[in-house]
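>> received
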Amino acid sequence: MRVLLPWLAVLALVIALNALRLRPLAALVSLAWLAWCVWTWVRPRPGR
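>> returned
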């Protein structure tokens, strides 16, 4: 469950921003989260 907390926090933030009609900011948060996830997946790791 602990692994899912960042995902759930970002999801809750995006839903809250959408509810407050701050959709551009919600989209920015979503895209930043996606970029961070992709970066952590493809970045070179030490020892590779």
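>> The two ends are 29 Å apart (CA to CA).
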